[in-house]
């Protein structure tokens, strides 16, 4: 059985670090792991998606519609954009932060504020959290990624210490404490 | 040791263990990280070259001198390097040489989705194609041996999904390969007609030998399963096929797409009931099968456009769809855009405001084409802004020169803008060329280039003096402006467009994302003063939006560049608190 996780958000929100930490932990647990991301053009404030897949043997590096067990969304609108990738019975973990895309900024479109409620009425399981506040409490708005990762981590039977170990091995030394704090706050939200 | 690696890192590791000593590349998504990772190894002399032709020729020079070498680029980069490629096929190599090139099906970050396997066939150079990181590592390492055994450079074909997917790689240690002696050999290395005529014979003989090798090459393998369906596939498509069919179908996995293993293909075709070829982009393998008298199902079911997925394959075989839920409300698109504080924004604002025709180029600043600025009229390829404006003005009424400019980044100007500017000066068009000098190669993720004064390792290096270069070319009117200074930009653009000779405006300010750039505290909107005229929003800055009837500045994005403040007629945008 392969487990499929999509990490979605806006370029610059730090999804690369989240997928890196997740990949490291899953590899150390002995799984076959594939992580797929697109660099380049999409980094510049565009919509970004990262696929993380793990299991005994993983072939495709990407996830397609109806396949994701979890969608970890760093931004509200992005959760809705990628909702079709969720499989039946899957779960969306979403940061309630709203970042206006350019069509909204220039007044060509409205930010669809009730889009999560709409998905809920269709039976989609959603956990919405204010990761930005938790990140600020940890010391940096940039730690939204680790707060959210911690929410996802709670879903797996992987010891807490493994995640902390991955943070210590991956993050630059001066940011380790802040990220550990963010993980703790996210985990205990 | 087992590690998760993106394909590009695995290529770097494979080349490293294979004894590479020199790499020269030009950055291009999705190939850039190959060279960045190689630069971390002290044993490898690593360089960013001004363009892919220079990189390929430098790597060839290193091979000639006896050191194992490589170069890396994106698919369109090989267009630039095609000239050396076709003739180094004739000369062959001394020490092993690997040319790593990444295709970009679906154009995640490219201007076309050409399938560069055509080049391998046309230039008669062998090609290897991995389907995951472990193979990227193994194939890169083996490519040196194949290169030396058959006396030819080897193309390593990556694609976005292999280059930028992480999967598990089991690494080993580096093998130190002593340099081969350089021996003068004009008949082999001087490609003038009398020699080249003889070398073409060698090329044909080599292809024959490579075709034989392909039959037993371990990178081509048959995985027999159910025989109702037999699939010939390669690269990332192989992974999608296995995802969908597992052991239920038989697969001939091609790891060496040029030359193809003909006997292996014919033998495989005999063993299965229905033969499919599943390959992204062009029908290269499929056409070859047809030439062998086979009649596989290929492009009639699997598109020539874009990239595949397990879903594409399932749908083509009419397998059941996976149920999913869609929101009825359509999520507004979130296209990439220039960052808050991007120095390109100011100059584009001026060009857009004055309704100037802008011949654009390749880089972050291509994003100036996006609304609301919508400032760019065309982008073709690296350098085509400067070459294009010359022809555009030569063929236009004289008035056109007063409302047309070319824009090109510092790295792109080094890559292939210089020759275009030489043409402007030499053949005399009244062109205005704006060099957007943000002191870095931005779009590919901050690589140094000859104008930055630093090399790939971040050490001080030779620095091109752009002003002096333009003058030396014959442009007398060369001036520098700060793109945050909208008034100065507008004056410069207007004056140079009016001038009766060609000119260069250097719009100079480092990329706001560079670590050494100090940013100011986020600006604030004084809600009392704001009259909701939305002038600030005409910049298309992601930090500026409209909330509750007033302009709003997002403090997490704003870097305090104050360009929006300069536009505000009511002084409603104020400096923020110090950090």
Could you walk me through the main structural features you see in this protein, from its secondary elements to its overall organization?
- The complex is a heterodimer of chains A (189) and B (579).
- Chain A has 189 residues and is an alpha/beta fold.
- Chain A has 8 helices and 6 strands; from the N terminus they run βαβββαβααβαααα.
- Chain A has a single domain (3-187), classed as 3-Layer(aba) Sandwich (Pyruvate-ferredoxin Oxidoreductase, domain 3), CATH 3.40.920.10.
- Chain A has helices spanning 15-28, 76-81, 102-105, 115-121, 131-138, 144-153, 160-170, 176-187, and strands at residues 3-10, 32-37, 47-55, 68-73, 86-95, 125-129.
- In chain A, strand 4 (68-73), helix 2 (76-81) and strand 5 (86-95) form a beta-alpha-beta unit.
- Chain B is 36% helix and 17% strand.
- Chain B is built from 20 helices and 21 strands.
- A 6-stranded parallel β-sheet of chain B has the order 3-2-4-5-7-6. A 5-stranded parallel β-sheet of chain B has the order 13-14-15-17-16, with helices on both faces. A 4-stranded mixed β-sheet of chain B has the order 9-11-10-12, with helices on both faces.
- In chain B, strand 6 (127-128), helix 7 and strand 7 form a beta-alpha-beta unit.
- The radius of gyration of chain B is 27 Å and the shape is globular.
- The mean pLDDT of chain B is 97.
- Classes of the chains: A alpha/beta (189), B alpha/beta (579).
- Chains A and B meet through helix 1, strand 2, helix 2, strand 5 and helix 3 of A and strand 1, strand 8, helix 11 and strand 19 of B.
């Amino acid at each position: 059985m392969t487990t499929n996780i999509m990490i979605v958000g806006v370029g610059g929100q730090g999804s690369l670090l989240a997928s890196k930490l997740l990949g490291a932990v899953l590899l150390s647990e002995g799984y076959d792991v594939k992580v797929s991301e697109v660099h380049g053009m999409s980094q510049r404030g565009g919509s970004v998606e990262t696929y993380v897949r793990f299991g005994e043997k993983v072939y495709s590096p990407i996830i397609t519609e109806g396949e994701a067990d979890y969608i970890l969304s760093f931004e509200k609108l992005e959760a809705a954009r990628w909702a079709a990738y969720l499989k039946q019975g899957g779960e969306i973990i979403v940061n309630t932060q709203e970042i206006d895309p350019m069509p909204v900024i220039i007044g060509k479109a409205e930010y669809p504020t009730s889009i999560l409620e709409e998905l809920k009425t269709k039976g989609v399981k959603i956990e919405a959290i204010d990761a930005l506040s938790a990140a600020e409490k940890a010391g940096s708005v940039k730690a939204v990624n680790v707060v959210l990762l911690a929410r996802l981590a709670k879903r797996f039977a992987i010891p807490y210490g493994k995640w902390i170990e991955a943070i210590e091995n991956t993050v630059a030394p001066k940011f380790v404490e802040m990220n550990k704090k963010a993980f703790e706050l996210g985990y205990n939200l | 040791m087992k590690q998760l690696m993106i394909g590009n890192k695995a290529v770097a590791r494979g080349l490293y263990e294979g004894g590479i000593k020199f790499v020269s590349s030009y950055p291009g998504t999705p190939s850039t990280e190959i060279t960045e990772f190689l630069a971390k190894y002290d044993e490898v002399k690593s360089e960013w070259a001004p363009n892919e032709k220079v990189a390929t020729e430098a790597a060839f020079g290193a091979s000639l001198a006896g050191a194992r070498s490589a170069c890396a680029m994106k698919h369109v980069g090989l267009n630039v390097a095609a000239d050396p490629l076709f003739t180094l096929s004739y000369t062959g190599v001394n020490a092993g040489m690997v040319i790593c090139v990444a295709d970009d099906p679906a154009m995640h970050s490219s201007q076309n989705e050409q399938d560069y396997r055509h080049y391998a066939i046309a230039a008669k150079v062998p090609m290897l194609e991995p389907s995951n990181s472990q193979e990227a590592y193994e194939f890169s390492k083996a490519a040196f041996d194949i290169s030396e055994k058959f006396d030819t450079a080897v193309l390593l074909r990556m694609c976005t999904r292999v280059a930028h997917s992480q999967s598990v790689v089991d690494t080993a240690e580096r093998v130190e390969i002593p340099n081969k002696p350089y021996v003068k050999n004009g008949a082999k290395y001087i490609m003038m007609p009398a020699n080249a005529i003889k070398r073409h014979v060698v090329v044909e003989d080599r292809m024959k030998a490579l075709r034989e090798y392909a039959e037993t090459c371990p990178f081509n393998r048959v995985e027999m399963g159910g025989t109702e369906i037999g699939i010939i596939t390669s690269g990332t498509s192989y992974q999608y096929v296995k995802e969908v069919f597992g052991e239920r179908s038989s697969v001939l996995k091609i790891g060496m797409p040029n030359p193809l293993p003909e006997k292996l293909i014919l033998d495989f075709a005999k063993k299965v009931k229905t033969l499919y070829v599943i390959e992204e982009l062009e029908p290269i393998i499929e056409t070859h099968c047809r030439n062998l008298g086979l009649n596989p199902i290929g492009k009639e079911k699997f598109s020539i456009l874009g990239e595949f997925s397990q879903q594409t394959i399932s749908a083509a075989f009419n397998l059941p769809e996976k149920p999913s839920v869609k929101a009825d409300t359509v999520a507004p698109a979130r296209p990439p855009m220039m960052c808050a504080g991007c120095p390109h924004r100011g100059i584009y604002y001026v060009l857009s405001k004055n309704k100037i025709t802008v011949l654009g180029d390749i880089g972050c600043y291509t994003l100036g084409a996006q609304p609301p600025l919508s400032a760019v009229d065309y982008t073709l390829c690296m350098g085509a802004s400067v070459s294009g404006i010359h022809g555009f003005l030569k063929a236009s009424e004289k008035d056109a020169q007063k409302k047309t400019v070319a824009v090109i980044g510092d790295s792109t100007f080094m890559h292939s803008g210089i020759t275009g500017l030489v043409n402007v000066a030499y053949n005399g068009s009244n062109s205005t060329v704006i060099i957007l000098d943000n002191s870095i190669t931005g779009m590919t993720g901050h690589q140094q280039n000859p104008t930055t004064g630093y090399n790939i390792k971040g050490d001080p290096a030779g620095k091109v003096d752009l002003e002096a270069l333009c003058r030396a070319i014959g442009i007398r009117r060369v001036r520098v402006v700060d793109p945050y200074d909208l008034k100065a930009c507008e004056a410069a653009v207007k004056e140079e467009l009016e001038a009766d000779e060609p000119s260069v405006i250097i719009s100079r300010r480092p990329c706001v994302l560079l670590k050494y750039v100090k940013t100011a505290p986020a600006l604030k909107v004084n809600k009392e003063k704001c009259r909701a005229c939305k002038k600030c929003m005409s910049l298309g800055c992601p930090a500026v939006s409209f909330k509750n009837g007033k302009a709003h500045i997002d403090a997490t994005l704003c870097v305090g560049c104050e360009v929006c403040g300069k536009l505000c007629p009511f002084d409603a945008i104020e400096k923020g608190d110090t950090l």
